[in-house]
Protein backbone atom coordinates (compact mmCIF):
# COMPACT_ATOMS: atom_id res chain seq x y z
CA UNK A 1 0.00 0.00 0.00
CA UNK A 2 1.16 3.51 -0.76
CA UNK A 3 1.11 6.09 2.04
CA UNK A 4 2.05 9.74 1.77
CA UNK A 5 2.50 11.94 4.80
CA UNK A 6 3.77 15.40 5.67
CA UNK A 7 4.89 17.47 8.64
CA UNK A 8 5.73 21.12 9.11
CA UNK A 9 7.51 22.63 12.11
CA UNK A 10 4.80 25.27 12.48
CA UNK A 11 2.01 22.69 12.70
CA UNK A 12 2.46 21.98 16.34
CA UNK A 13 -0.07 20.28 18.60
CA UNK A 14 1.41 21.17 22.00
CA UNK A 15 4.46 21.07 24.20
CA UNK A 16 4.55 17.53 25.55
CA UNK A 17 4.55 17.35 29.32
CA UNK A 18 7.30 14.88 30.30
CA UNK A 19 4.78 13.27 32.64
CA UNK A 20 3.06 11.77 29.61
CA UNK A 21 5.42 8.87 30.36
CA UNK A 22 4.61 8.48 34.04
CA UNK A 23 3.84 5.17 35.76
CA UNK A 24 1.67 3.73 38.50
CA UNK A 25 2.42 1.19 41.20
CA UNK A 26 -0.06 -0.14 43.73
CA UNK A 27 0.11 -2.21 46.88
CA UNK A 28 -1.40 -5.27 45.27
CA UNK A 29 -0.28 -8.68 44.10
CA UNK A 30 3.52 -8.83 43.81
CA UNK A 31 4.03 -5.24 42.61
CA UNK A 32 5.72 -4.08 45.82
CA UNK A 33 6.49 -7.27 47.74
CA UNK A 34 8.75 -9.56 45.67
CA UNK A 35 8.42 -6.98 42.88
CA UNK A 36 10.45 -3.89 43.68
CA UNK A 37 11.10 -4.96 47.28
CA UNK A 38 12.40 -8.34 48.37
CA UNK A 39 14.76 -8.39 51.34
CA UNK A 40 16.91 -11.50 51.14
CA UNK A 41 16.91 -11.62 47.34
CA UNK A 42 20.48 -11.88 45.97
CA UNK A 43 19.90 -8.56 44.17
CA UNK A 44 18.45 -6.74 47.21
CA UNK A 45 20.24 -3.64 48.47
CA UNK A 46 20.66 -2.77 52.15
CA UNK A 47 17.08 -1.47 52.30
CA UNK A 48 15.56 -4.56 50.66
CA UNK A 49 14.88 -3.08 47.21
CA UNK A 50 15.91 -5.14 44.20
CA UNK A 51 18.77 -3.65 42.20
CA UNK A 52 17.95 -5.64 39.07
CA UNK A 53 14.37 -4.32 39.01
CA UNK A 54 15.51 -0.78 39.83
CA UNK A 55 17.97 -0.85 36.91
CA UNK A 56 15.15 -1.76 34.51
CA UNK A 57 12.98 0.99 35.95
CA UNK A 58 15.83 3.51 35.65
CA UNK A 59 16.26 2.72 31.95
CA UNK A 60 12.66 3.82 31.35
CA UNK A 61 13.42 7.42 32.40
CA UNK A 62 10.08 7.68 34.24
CA UNK A 63 9.28 11.25 35.31
CA UNK A 64 6.59 10.56 37.93
CA UNK A 65 4.87 7.67 39.68
CA UNK A 66 1.37 7.39 41.16
CA UNK A 67 1.31 5.58 44.53
CA UNK A 68 -0.03 3.67 46.57
CA UNK A 69 -3.24 2.83 44.63
CA UNK A 70 -5.53 2.13 42.91
CA UNK A 71 -8.45 0.40 44.55
CA UNK A 72 -6.12 -0.31 47.47
CA UNK A 73 -5.98 3.34 48.49
CA UNK A 74 -9.72 3.53 49.13
CA UNK A 75 -9.39 1.65 52.43
CA UNK A 76 -5.73 2.44 53.19
CA UNK A 77 -4.54 4.05 56.41
CA UNK A 78 -1.31 5.76 55.42
CA UNK A 79 -0.19 5.86 59.09
CA UNK A 80 0.09 2.04 59.02
CA UNK A 81 3.01 2.37 56.62
CA UNK A 82 5.26 4.74 58.62
CA UNK A 83 7.35 4.33 61.76
CA UNK A 84 9.35 1.30 62.87
CA UNK A 85 8.69 -1.58 60.47
CA UNK A 86 8.42 -4.13 63.27
CA UNK A 87 5.56 -2.16 64.85
CA UNK A 88 3.46 -1.83 61.70
CA UNK A 89 0.10 -3.59 61.64
CA UNK A 90 -0.85 -6.33 59.22
CA UNK A 91 -4.21 -5.40 57.67
CA UNK A 92 -6.73 -6.97 55.36
CA UNK A 93 -6.72 -5.28 51.97
CA UNK A 94 -10.40 -5.34 51.00
CA UNK A 95 -9.78 -4.36 47.38
CA UNK A 96 -7.69 -7.43 46.51
CA UNK A 97 -8.66 -9.84 49.32
CA UNK A 98 -5.04 -9.96 50.47
CA UNK A 99 -2.96 -9.28 53.56
CA UNK A 100 -0.98 -6.03 53.62
CA UNK A 101 2.06 -6.25 55.90
CA UNK A 102 2.86 -2.52 55.59
CA UNK A 103 6.57 -3.29 55.45
CA UNK A 104 6.76 -0.75 52.64
CA UNK A 105 5.16 2.64 53.12
CA UNK A 106 5.93 6.23 52.20
CA UNK A 107 9.35 6.37 53.86
CA UNK A 108 10.58 3.30 52.00
CA UNK A 109 8.94 4.06 48.67
CA UNK A 110 9.92 7.75 48.45
CA UNK A 111 13.72 7.17 48.64
CA UNK A 112 13.41 4.38 46.08
CA UNK A 113 11.63 6.75 43.68
CA UNK A 114 13.99 9.62 44.42
CA UNK A 115 17.04 7.50 43.73
CA UNK A 116 15.53 6.71 40.32
CA UNK A 117 14.82 10.39 39.63
CA UNK A 118 11.05 9.84 39.78
CA UNK A 119 8.65 12.40 41.31
CA UNK A 120 5.86 11.18 43.56
CA UNK A 121 2.21 11.53 42.71
CA UNK A 122 0.43 10.56 45.92
CA UNK A 123 -3.17 9.38 46.17
CA UNK A 124 -5.25 10.11 49.26
CA UNK A 125 -8.03 7.87 50.51
CA UNK A 126 -11.41 9.47 49.80
CA UNK A 127 -13.23 6.12 49.99
CA UNK A 128 -13.23 5.04 53.62
CA UNK A 129 -11.71 8.33 54.83
CA UNK A 130 -11.98 12.06 54.17
CA UNK A 131 -10.53 15.55 54.42
CA UNK A 132 -9.06 15.16 57.86
CA UNK A 133 -6.85 12.16 57.07
CA UNK A 134 -5.83 13.65 53.71
CA UNK A 135 -4.77 16.83 55.51
CA UNK A 136 -2.80 14.84 58.11
CA UNK A 137 -1.05 12.91 55.36
CA UNK A 138 -0.04 16.04 53.48
CA UNK A 139 1.19 17.65 56.68
CA UNK A 140 3.35 14.57 57.34
CA UNK A 141 4.64 14.61 53.77
CA UNK A 142 5.15 18.30 53.07
CA UNK A 143 5.31 20.39 56.26
CA UNK A 144 8.88 21.23 57.34
CA UNK A 145 8.71 20.93 61.15
CA UNK A 146 7.13 22.01 64.40
CA UNK A 147 3.74 20.31 64.12
CA UNK A 148 2.45 16.94 65.27
CA UNK A 149 2.60 15.23 61.87
CA UNK A 150 5.77 16.88 60.57
CA UNK A 151 7.59 16.12 63.81
CA UNK A 152 6.33 12.55 63.65
CA UNK A 153 7.95 12.29 60.21
CA UNK A 154 11.18 13.71 61.63
CA UNK A 155 11.03 11.22 64.48
CA UNK A 156 10.85 8.55 61.76
CA UNK A 157 14.21 9.72 60.48
CA UNK A 158 13.01 11.94 57.61
CA UNK A 159 14.18 15.43 58.47
CA UNK A 160 13.34 17.25 55.22
CA UNK A 161 9.80 17.39 53.86
CA UNK A 162 9.18 15.56 50.60
CA UNK A 163 7.50 18.55 48.92
CA UNK A 164 5.20 16.38 46.83
CA UNK A 165 3.38 18.50 44.25
CA UNK A 166 0.94 16.01 42.64
CA UNK A 167 -2.06 14.76 44.65
CA UNK A 168 -4.77 12.37 43.49
CA UNK A 169 -8.12 12.91 45.20
CA UNK A 170 -9.11 9.26 45.63
CA UNK A 171 -9.38 6.55 43.01
CA UNK A 172 -12.15 5.49 40.58
CA UNK A 173 -14.86 6.93 42.79
CA UNK A 174 -17.43 6.28 40.02
CA UNK A 175 -16.96 2.51 40.38
CA UNK A 176 -19.47 0.53 42.47
CA UNK A 177 -16.55 -1.83 43.32
CA UNK A 178 -14.72 1.01 45.06
CA UNK A 179 -14.75 1.11 48.85
CA UNK A 180 -16.67 4.31 49.56
CA UNK A 181 -18.04 4.67 46.01
CA UNK A 182 -19.96 7.93 45.61
CA UNK A 183 -22.36 9.79 43.37
CA UNK A 184 -20.77 12.42 41.13
CA UNK A 185 -22.01 15.50 42.99
CA UNK A 186 -21.26 13.93 46.36
CA UNK A 187 -17.71 13.06 45.31
CA UNK A 188 -17.25 16.39 43.51
CA UNK A 189 -18.06 18.28 46.72
CA UNK A 190 -15.71 16.13 48.79
CA UNK A 191 -12.94 16.52 46.20
CA UNK A 192 -13.47 20.28 46.15
CA UNK A 193 -13.27 20.68 49.90
CA UNK A 194 -10.28 18.33 50.12
CA UNK A 195 -8.46 20.21 47.35
CA UNK A 196 -9.10 23.53 49.11
CA UNK A 197 -7.75 22.18 52.41
CA UNK A 198 -4.70 20.58 50.81
CA UNK A 199 -3.87 23.74 48.90
CA UNK A 200 -3.84 25.69 52.12
CA UNK A 201 -1.10 23.36 53.31
CA UNK A 202 0.84 23.26 50.03
CA UNK A 203 0.04 26.26 47.87
CA UNK A 204 0.45 25.40 44.21
CA UNK A 205 0.01 21.65 44.78
CA UNK A 206 -1.58 20.06 41.72
CA UNK A 207 -4.94 18.42 42.32
CA UNK A 208 -6.12 15.45 40.27
CA UNK A 209 -9.81 14.61 40.55
CA UNK A 210 -11.30 11.24 39.53
CA UNK A 211 -12.98 11.00 36.16
CA UNK A 212 -14.41 7.79 34.73
CA UNK A 213 -12.96 4.32 35.31
CA UNK A 214 -13.54 3.72 31.61
CA UNK A 215 -15.70 4.98 28.78
CA UNK A 216 -18.16 2.09 29.12
CA UNK A 217 -19.24 3.16 32.61
CA UNK A 218 -22.99 3.90 32.62
CA UNK A 219 -22.26 7.27 34.26
CA UNK A 220 -19.70 8.34 31.60
CA UNK A 221 -19.43 11.20 30.58
CA UNK A 222 -22.03 12.76 32.85
CA UNK A 223 -19.81 11.80 35.80
CA UNK A 224 -17.13 14.23 34.66
CA UNK A 225 -19.69 17.00 34.22
CA UNK A 226 -21.16 16.41 37.68
CA UNK A 227 -17.77 16.21 39.39
CA UNK A 228 -16.28 19.23 37.63
CA UNK A 229 -19.33 21.35 38.31
CA UNK A 230 -18.50 20.94 42.00
CA UNK A 231 -14.75 21.42 41.91
CA UNK A 232 -13.56 22.89 38.58
CA UNK A 233 -11.84 25.97 40.03
CA UNK A 234 -9.87 24.00 42.58
CA UNK A 235 -8.43 21.19 40.47
CA UNK A 236 -5.83 20.96 37.72
CA UNK A 237 -6.50 17.56 36.15
CA UNK A 238 -9.30 15.08 35.75
CA UNK A 239 -8.11 11.49 35.66
CA UNK A 240 -9.24 8.91 33.11
CA UNK A 241 -8.62 5.17 33.14
CA UNK A 242 -8.95 2.55 30.42
CA UNK A 243 -7.70 -1.01 29.99
CA UNK A 244 -7.68 -2.92 26.73
CA UNK A 245 -8.02 -6.46 25.50
CA UNK A 246 -8.36 -8.63 22.45
CA UNK A 247 -10.34 -11.61 23.72
CA UNK A 248 -12.11 -11.92 20.36
CA UNK A 249 -8.73 -12.30 18.59
CA UNK A 250 -9.51 -9.51 16.14
CA UNK A 251 -6.23 -7.66 15.78
CA UNK A 252 -7.49 -4.77 13.67
CA UNK A 253 -10.36 -4.14 16.05
CA UNK A 254 -7.91 -4.28 18.96
CA UNK A 255 -5.78 -1.62 17.28
CA UNK A 256 -8.98 0.36 16.59
CA UNK A 257 -9.42 0.78 20.36
CA UNK A 258 -6.74 3.44 20.13
CA UNK A 259 -9.11 5.55 17.99
CA UNK A 260 -11.86 4.85 20.51
CA UNK A 261 -9.53 6.21 23.21
CA UNK A 262 -9.02 9.34 21.12
CA UNK A 263 -12.79 9.84 21.15
CA UNK A 264 -12.82 9.32 24.94
CA UNK A 265 -10.19 12.04 25.39
CA UNK A 266 -11.97 14.33 22.95
CA UNK A 267 -15.32 13.88 24.71
CA UNK A 268 -13.87 14.67 28.13
CA UNK A 269 -12.07 17.64 26.59
CA UNK A 270 -15.52 18.84 25.52
CA UNK A 271 -16.93 18.33 29.03
CA UNK A 272 -14.03 20.30 30.50
CA UNK A 273 -14.69 23.16 28.08
CA UNK A 274 -18.43 23.03 28.81
CA UNK A 275 -17.96 23.28 32.57
CA UNK A 276 -15.32 25.97 32.21
CA UNK A 277 -17.68 28.06 30.10
CA UNK A 278 -20.66 27.40 32.35
CA UNK A 279 -18.74 28.47 35.46
CA UNK A 280 -17.05 31.43 33.73
CA UNK A 281 -13.85 29.90 35.10
CA UNK A 282 -10.45 31.24 34.12
CA UNK A 283 -8.27 28.25 35.05
CA UNK A 284 -7.58 25.29 32.78
CA UNK A 285 -8.17 21.64 33.62
CA UNK A 286 -6.25 18.99 31.70
CA UNK A 287 -6.48 15.23 31.50
CA UNK A 288 -4.37 12.90 33.62
CA UNK A 289 -4.76 9.45 32.00
CA UNK A 290 -3.41 7.80 35.11
CA UNK A 291 -4.21 4.15 34.38
CA UNK A 292 -3.77 2.59 30.97
CA UNK A 293 -2.56 -0.76 29.71
CA UNK A 294 -3.51 -4.05 28.12
CA UNK A 295 -5.29 -6.24 30.69
CA UNK A 296 -7.18 -9.32 29.55
CA UNK A 297 -4.95 -12.37 29.26
CA UNK A 298 -5.48 -13.61 32.82
CA UNK A 299 -8.44 -11.51 33.85
CA UNK A 300 -11.03 -14.26 34.31
CA UNK A 301 -8.58 -16.67 35.88
CA UNK A 302 -7.50 -14.00 38.34
CA UNK A 303 -11.00 -12.97 39.38
CA UNK A 304 -11.93 -16.61 39.97
CA UNK A 305 -8.80 -17.14 42.08
CA UNK A 306 -9.13 -14.05 44.21
CA UNK A 307 -12.84 -14.50 44.90
CA UNK A 308 -12.05 -17.75 46.68
CA UNK A 309 -8.64 -17.34 48.29
CA UNK A 310 -8.01 -16.86 51.97
CA UNK A 311 -6.33 -13.46 52.32
CA UNK A 312 -2.84 -14.41 51.09
CA UNK A 313 0.20 -12.13 51.39
CA UNK A 314 1.49 -10.72 48.09
CA UNK A 315 -0.19 -13.35 45.87
CA UNK A 316 0.53 -13.53 42.14
CA UNK A 317 -2.18 -11.34 40.65
CA UNK A 318 -2.71 -9.77 37.22
CA UNK A 319 0.61 -11.17 36.00
CA UNK A 320 -0.14 -10.75 32.32
CA UNK A 321 2.27 -12.23 29.78
CA UNK A 322 2.42 -9.59 27.07
CA UNK A 323 2.57 -10.47 23.41
CA UNK A 324 4.14 -8.79 20.39
CA UNK A 325 0.61 -7.72 19.43
CA UNK A 326 0.29 -5.97 22.81
CA UNK A 327 3.59 -4.16 22.15
CA UNK A 328 2.23 -2.83 18.84
CA UNK A 329 -0.96 -1.78 20.58
CA UNK A 330 0.97 0.08 23.31
CA UNK A 331 3.05 1.81 20.62
CA UNK A 332 -0.16 3.05 18.95
CA UNK A 333 -1.69 4.15 22.26
CA UNK A 334 1.41 6.19 23.11
CA UNK A 335 1.18 7.72 19.64
CA UNK A 336 -2.38 8.75 20.46
CA UNK A 337 -1.24 10.35 23.72
CA UNK A 338 1.37 12.34 21.78
CA UNK A 339 -1.32 13.44 19.31
CA UNK A 340 -3.59 14.40 22.23
CA UNK A 341 -0.85 16.12 24.25
CA UNK A 342 -2.80 19.38 24.16
CA UNK A 343 -5.35 17.72 26.48
CA UNK A 344 -3.43 14.87 28.10
CA UNK A 345 -0.58 16.20 30.22
CA UNK A 346 0.00 13.19 32.47
CA UNK A 347 -0.43 9.50 31.62
CA UNK A 348 0.57 6.54 33.79
CA UNK A 349 1.24 3.06 32.53
CA UNK A 350 -0.56 0.72 34.91
CA UNK A 351 1.31 -0.75 36.41
CA UNK A 352 5.11 -0.99 36.58
CA UNK A 353 6.27 -4.29 38.09
CA UNK A 354 4.58 -7.74 38.04
CA UNK A 355 0.97 -6.48 38.09
CA UNK A 356 -0.07 -5.73 34.46
CA UNK A 357 3.48 -4.57 34.03
CA UNK A 358 6.33 -4.05 31.57
CA UNK A 359 8.76 -5.49 34.15
CA UNK A 360 8.41 -8.88 35.79
CA UNK A 361 10.40 -10.27 38.68
CA UNK A 362 10.40 -13.84 39.91
CA UNK A 363 10.42 -14.18 43.70
CA UNK A 364 14.00 -15.22 44.47
CA UNK A 365 14.74 -15.33 40.74
CA UNK A 366 15.47 -13.11 37.76
CA UNK A 367 13.76 -9.97 36.52
CA UNK A 368 12.89 -9.56 32.85
CA UNK A 369 11.40 -7.12 30.37
CA UNK A 370 8.08 -7.85 28.71
CA UNK A 371 7.32 -6.91 25.09
CA UNK A 372 5.51 -3.71 26.10
CA UNK A 373 8.58 -2.43 27.95
CA UNK A 374 10.09 -1.39 24.63
CA UNK A 375 7.47 0.92 23.09
CA UNK A 376 7.04 2.51 26.53
CA UNK A 377 10.79 3.02 26.83
CA UNK A 378 11.26 4.30 23.28
CA UNK A 379 8.43 6.81 23.63
CA UNK A 380 9.69 7.93 27.05
CA UNK A 381 13.24 8.42 25.78
CA UNK A 382 12.46 9.98 22.42
CA UNK A 383 8.92 11.36 22.64
CA UNK A 384 9.76 14.56 24.48
CA UNK A 385 9.61 18.12 23.21
CA UNK A 386 6.78 19.31 21.03
CA UNK A 387 4.18 17.19 19.31
CA UNK A 388 3.86 17.83 15.58
CA UNK A 389 0.77 17.18 13.50
CA UNK A 390 1.34 14.47 10.87
CA UNK A 391 -0.96 14.51 7.84
CA UNK A 392 -1.23 10.88 6.74
CA UNK A 393 -2.90 9.90 3.48
CA UNK A 394 -3.20 6.16 2.89
CA UNK A 395 -5.48 3.13 3.10
CA UNK A 396 -7.83 2.95 6.04
CA UNK A 397 -10.19 0.35 7.55
CA UNK A 398 -13.45 0.12 9.49
CA UNK A 399 -13.88 -2.13 12.53
CA UNK A 400 -16.42 -2.68 15.31
CA UNK A 401 -15.07 0.06 17.59
CA UNK A 402 -14.00 2.65 15.03
CA UNK A 403 -14.30 3.67 11.40
CA UNK A 404 -11.70 5.08 9.08
CA UNK A 405 -8.63 3.86 10.95
CA UNK A 406 -5.38 4.51 9.12
CA UNK A 407 -3.30 1.36 8.70
CA UNK A 408 -0.21 3.45 9.12
CA UNK A 409 -0.10 5.18 12.49
CA UNK A 410 2.48 7.97 12.76
CA UNK A 411 3.19 10.41 15.59
CA UNK A 412 6.00 12.96 15.53
CA UNK A 413 7.88 14.95 18.13
CA UNK A 414 10.23 17.89 17.69
CA UNK A 415 12.97 18.48 20.22
CA UNK A 416 13.80 22.09 19.47
CA UNK A 417 16.77 22.10 21.86
CA UNK A 418 18.46 19.09 20.29
CA UNK A 419 17.21 19.99 16.81
CA UNK A 420 15.80 16.51 16.28
CA UNK A 421 12.52 15.22 14.90
CA UNK A 422 11.39 11.73 15.88
CA UNK A 423 8.76 9.63 14.13
CA UNK A 424 6.93 6.78 15.85
CA UNK A 425 5.51 4.60 13.09
CA UNK A 426 3.31 1.51 13.38
CA UNK A 427 2.10 -0.43 10.36
CA UNK A 428 -1.09 -2.07 11.60
CA UNK A 429 -1.72 -3.87 8.33
CA UNK A 430 -1.78 -7.63 8.85
CA UNK A 431 -0.02 -8.51 5.62
CA UNK A 432 0.94 -5.51 3.47
CA UNK A 433 4.03 -3.37 3.71
CA UNK A 434 3.54 0.38 3.43
CA UNK A 435 5.47 2.24 0.76
CA UNK A 436 5.95 5.47 2.72
CA UNK A 437 6.77 8.94 1.37
CA UNK A 438 6.86 11.43 4.26
CA UNK A 439 7.61 14.99 3.16
CA UNK A 440 9.78 16.80 5.66
CA UNK A 441 8.63 20.23 4.51
CA UNK A 442 10.71 22.81 6.27
CA UNK A 443 13.28 20.49 7.77
CA UNK A 444 15.57 20.69 4.76
CA UNK A 445 18.77 18.73 4.83
CA UNK A 446 17.62 16.51 7.71
CA UNK A 447 19.61 13.29 8.01
CA UNK A 448 18.76 10.00 9.61
CA UNK A 449 20.27 9.81 13.10
CA UNK A 450 18.85 6.52 14.32
CA UNK A 451 16.23 3.93 13.45
CA UNK A 452 15.06 1.26 15.87
CA UNK A 453 12.40 -1.30 15.17
CA UNK A 454 10.32 -4.07 16.69
CA UNK A 455 9.29 -6.35 13.87
CA UNK A 456 9.09 -9.85 12.49
CA UNK A 457 7.63 -11.67 15.50
CA UNK A 458 4.50 -13.82 15.60
CA UNK A 459 1.66 -11.75 17.07
CA UNK A 460 1.28 -14.01 20.08
CA UNK A 461 5.03 -14.25 20.84
CA UNK A 462 6.05 -13.27 24.37
CA UNK A 463 9.24 -12.65 26.34
CA UNK A 464 10.03 -14.59 29.51
CA UNK A 465 12.75 -15.07 32.11
CA UNK A 466 16.00 -15.70 30.22
CA UNK A 467 14.01 -15.42 26.99
CA UNK A 468 13.87 -11.84 25.75
CA UNK A 469 13.75 -12.20 21.97
CA UNK A 470 11.39 -9.27 21.46
CA UNK A 471 13.73 -6.30 21.75
CA UNK A 472 14.34 -3.29 19.50
CA UNK A 473 16.93 -3.84 16.79
CA UNK A 474 18.44 -1.42 14.26
CA UNK A 475 15.86 -0.73 11.60
CA UNK A 476 16.28 -0.98 7.86
CA UNK A 477 14.45 0.07 4.75
CA UNK A 478 13.84 3.75 5.53
CA UNK A 479 16.02 6.57 4.24
CA UNK A 480 15.96 10.23 3.29
CA UNK A 481 16.03 11.51 -0.26
CA UNK A 482 14.95 14.95 -1.51
CA UNK A 483 13.81 15.98 1.98
CA UNK A 484 11.48 13.00 2.09
CA UNK A 485 11.60 10.10 4.52
CA UNK A 486 10.76 7.10 2.43
CA UNK A 487 10.90 3.35 2.13
CA UNK A 488 9.16 0.16 3.08
CA UNK A 489 7.44 -0.30 6.42
CA UNK A 490 6.83 -4.01 7.00
CA UNK A 491 3.36 -5.19 8.08
CA UNK A 492 2.90 -5.41 11.86
CA UNK A 493 6.04 -3.47 12.68
CA UNK A 494 7.01 -0.53 14.90
CA UNK A 495 9.72 2.02 14.08
CA UNK A 496 11.28 4.91 15.95
CA UNK A 497 13.12 7.07 13.47
CA UNK A 498 15.12 10.07 14.61
CA UNK A 499 16.30 12.80 12.23
CA UNK A 500 18.59 15.77 12.70
O1 LIG B 1 -4.54 -1.32 38.16
C1 LIG B 1 -5.42 -2.26 38.69
C2 LIG B 1 -6.71 -1.64 39.17
O2 LIG B 1 -7.45 -1.18 38.06
C3 LIG B 1 -6.60 -0.42 40.05
O3 LIG B 1 -6.44 -0.73 41.38
C4 LIG B 1 -7.90 0.29 39.83
O4 LIG B 1 -7.80 1.67 39.98
C5 LIG B 1 -8.32 -0.15 38.44
O5 LIG B 1 -9.62 -0.61 38.42
TrEMBL record:
<keyword id="KW-0326">Glycosidase</keyword>
<dbReference type="InterPro" id="IPR055235">
    <property type="entry name" value="ASD1_cat"/>
</dbReference>
<dbReference type="InterPro" id="IPR017853">
    <property type="entry name" value="GH"/>
</dbReference>
<dbReference type="GO" id="GO:0000272">
    <property type="term" value="P:polysaccharide catabolic process"/>
</dbReference>
<dbReference type="InterPro" id="IPR013780">
    <property type="entry name" value="Glyco_hydro_b"/>
</dbReference>
<dbReference type="GO" id="GO:0046556">
    <property type="term" value="F:alpha-L-arabinofuranosidase activity"/>
</dbReference>
<protein>
    <recommendedName>
        <fullName>non-reducing end alpha-L-arabinofuranosidase</fullName>
        <ecNumber>3.2.1.55</ecNumber>
    </recommendedName>
</protein>
<feature type="domain" description="Alpha-L-arabinofuranosidase C-terminal">
    <location>
        <begin position="290"/>
        <end position="493"/>
    </location>
</feature>
<dbReference type="Pfam" id="PF06964">
    <property type="entry name" value="Alpha-L-AF_C"/>
</dbReference>
<keyword id="KW-0378">Hydrolase</keyword>
<dbReference type="InterPro" id="IPR010720">
    <property type="entry name" value="Alpha-L-AF_C"/>
</dbReference>
<dbReference type="GO" id="GO:0046373">
    <property type="term" value="P:L-arabinose metabolic process"/>
</dbReference>
<comment type="subunit">
    <text>Homohexamer; trimer of dimers.</text>
</comment>
<comment type="similarity">
    <text>Belongs to the glycosyl hydrolase 51 family.</text>
</comment>
<dbReference type="Pfam" id="PF22848">
    <property type="entry name" value="ASD1_dom"/>
</dbReference>
<keyword id="KW-0119">Carbohydrate metabolism</keyword>
Amino acid sequence: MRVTAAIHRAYEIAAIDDRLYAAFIEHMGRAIYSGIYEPGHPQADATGFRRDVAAMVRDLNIPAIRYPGGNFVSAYNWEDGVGPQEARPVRLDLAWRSKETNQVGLNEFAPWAEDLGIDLMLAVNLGSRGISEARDFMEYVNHPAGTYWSDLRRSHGVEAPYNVRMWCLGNEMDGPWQIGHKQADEYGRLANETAKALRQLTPGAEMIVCGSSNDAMPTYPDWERGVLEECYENVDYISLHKYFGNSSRDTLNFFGKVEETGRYIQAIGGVIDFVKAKKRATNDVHICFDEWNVWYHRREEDSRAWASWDWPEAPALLEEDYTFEDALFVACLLNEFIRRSDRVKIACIAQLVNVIAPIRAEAGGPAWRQTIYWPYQLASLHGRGRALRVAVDGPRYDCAVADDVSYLDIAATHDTGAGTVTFFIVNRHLSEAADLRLTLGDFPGATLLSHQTLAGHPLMATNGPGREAIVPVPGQGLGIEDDTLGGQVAPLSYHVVKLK
